[in-house]
């Protein structure tokens, strides 16, 4: 490649800029995949909370659910329209002998696509809003003042349960202390009671400092929204790990709280990843406003569990940054499952059902994603797939049917392709020891 003769510094700058321009799409990807991004927060001074308990006295309801006898239920595979749209486009481009030029318009038109499939992608996407709106009969479980207090308490409990699990796995105390003292103290986690499928998504993000200009990327805040909890309620209902779905209020609270835990454990894994980086940051980078901290730390957790699912991404600079994102999401999904199994003392049968309905339902789309990877790396090896959305969106804008703007939005979500790679390749239980062993020292 001619670019290999040039300095890699400009390419590195572009890669880093792309990461932070697209961060809003990446942190929201979990919201999109499980649909079948800054707030002026300071460190806070809440004297009613401490780091070992929650601010509301709600008893933990995680005991007594282990069972080998749970109702069977088929796993319903989900559709991810943006991946299907991208794969359709790549197949057409392969047939047209596209040269992989990212600076020119694609040599295909929207009329080359199967129009029925395009409309199906649009309809599926629109239907997601309805599925993610909490029905009126359940609003009190998420939006009332009592529910807000209960869910804030469970959120705080979940953080502590995660820290306890780290101790059980032999994670070095310095990383646990880093989480408690700097990365995510308990006062920086918040439940937001609002019923809106298009609201902000649940996420961890850098702390916005008091002047509301600078961020401290060593310190995180966590925001949790009902829509993401409710979506996981649907997943847990389908899994039947707590029995057949019921209108009984206690059943609904049990599944609601479990769904919040599953979500929180994922986000807490990102907190752990940042804490590990913080501990290994050289002193010259251990300060606010340094964005790309992971590549400045002496150590990070990228790929310690597996690198088999990593992509080439066109060149090594993009590969480093994008595979970092993929690794983080892969670990977060696997750890969330693992901590759920431990917290609820789930049986092997329940654990498998949770895996199948939470992660296994992505299997068909994982196959599509792998085909996308094969086409890029065999046919267009110098092309960065992370940029494909920039050429696919103008193509989507040509669509003249109902929902053209929706199709553009679908194509635009491919800006977060590295995160898709992680979500659809969750850390396998047999690979988890690579992560836990790394965290012991």
Plain-language structure description:
The chain has one domain (2-72, 133-350, 416-438). The model is unreliable at 1-28, 35-50 and 53-57 (pLDDT under 50). It has helices at 9-21, 23-27, 29-33, 81-95, 115-131, 140-143, 145-168, 173-183, 226-239, 249-279, 316-343, 348-358, 363-379, 388-396, 404-412, 417-423, 432-438, and strands spanning 189-191, 203-208, 215-224. Strands 1-3-2 form a three-stranded mixed β-sheet. It is mostly helical. The relative contact order is 0.17. 51% of the residues lie in helices and 4% in strands.
Number of helices: 17
Mean pLDDT: 88
**What is the number of beta strands?**
3
What form results from the Cα inertia axes?
globular
The biggest sheet, with number of strands, parallel, antiparallel or mixed sense and barrel status, is: 3 strands, mixed
- What is the first-to-last residue Cα distance? 40 Å
Rg from Cα: 22 Å
What class, by secondary structure content? Answer: mainly alpha
Uncertain residue ranges: 1-28, 35-50, 53-57
Q: Report strand order across the widest sheet.
A: 1-3-2
Strand content: under 5%
How many distinct domains?
1
> Roughly what percent helix?
40-55%
Write down the secondary-structure element order.
HHHHHHHHEEEHHHHHHHHH
Task: Please tag this protein with its features.
441 residues; mainly alpha; 3-stranded mixed sheet; 17 helices; globular
Task: Describe what is shown at a glance.
With 441 residues, the protein is mainly alpha-helical. 51% of the residues lie in helices and 4% in strands. The longest helix is centred in the middle third of the chain and has 31 residues, at 249-279.
């Amino acid at each position: 490649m001619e670019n290999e003769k040039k300095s890699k510094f400009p390419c590195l700058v572009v890669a880093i800029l792309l990461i932070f321009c697209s961060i809003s799409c990446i942190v929201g990807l979990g919201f999109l995949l499980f649909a079948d991004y800054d707030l002026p927060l300071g460190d806070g001074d809440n004297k009613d909370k401490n780091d070992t308990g929650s601010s509301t006295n709600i008893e933990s309801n995680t005991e007594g659910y282990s069972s080998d006898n749970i109702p069977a239920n088929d796993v319903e595979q989900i559709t991810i329209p943006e991946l299907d749209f991208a794969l359709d486009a790549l197949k057409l481009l392969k047939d047209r002998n596209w040269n992989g030029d990212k600076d020119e318009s694609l040599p295909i038109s929207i009329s080359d696509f199967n129009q029925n499939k395009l409309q199906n992608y649009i309809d599926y996407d629109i239907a997601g809003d309805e599925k993610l709106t909490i029905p009126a009969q359940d609003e009190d479980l998420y939006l009332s003042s009592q529910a807000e207090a209960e869910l804030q308490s469970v959120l705080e409990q979940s953080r502590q349960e995660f820290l306890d699990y780290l101790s059980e796995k032999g994670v070095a105390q310095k990383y646990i202390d880093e989480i408690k003292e700097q990365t995510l103290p308990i006062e920086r986690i918040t439940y937001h009671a609002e019923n809106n499928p298009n609201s902000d998504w649940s996420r961890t993000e850098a702390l916005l400092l008091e002047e509301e200009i600078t961020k401290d990327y060593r310190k995180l805040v966590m925001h949790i929204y009902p829509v993401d909890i409710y979506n996981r309620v649907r997943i847990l209902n389908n899994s039947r790990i707590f029995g057949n779905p019921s209108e009984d209020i206690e059943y609904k609270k049990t599944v609601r709280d479990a769904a919040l835990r599953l979500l929180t454990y994922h986000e807490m894994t990102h907190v752990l990843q940042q804490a590990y980086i913080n501990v290994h940051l050289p002193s010259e980078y251990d300060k606010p406003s340094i964005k790309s901290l992971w590549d400045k730390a002496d150590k990070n957790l990228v790929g310690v569990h597996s690198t088999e699912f990593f992509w080439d991404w066109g060149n090594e600079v993009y590969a480093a940054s994008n595979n970092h994102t993929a690794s983080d999401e892969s670990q977060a999904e696997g750890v969330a499952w693992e901590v759920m199994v431990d917290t609820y003392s789930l049986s092997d049968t329940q654990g498998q059902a949770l895996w199948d309905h939470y992660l296994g339902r992505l299997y068909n789309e994982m196959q599509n994603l792998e085909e996308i990877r094969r086409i890029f790396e065999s046919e267009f090896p110098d092309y960065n797939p992370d940029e494909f959305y920039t050429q696919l969106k103008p193509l989507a804008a040509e669509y003249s049917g109902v929902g053209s703007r929706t199709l553009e939005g679908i194509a635009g979500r491919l800006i977060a392709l590295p995160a898709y790679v992680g979500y659809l390749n969750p850390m396998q239980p047999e690979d988890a020891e690579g992560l836990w062993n790394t965290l012991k020292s």
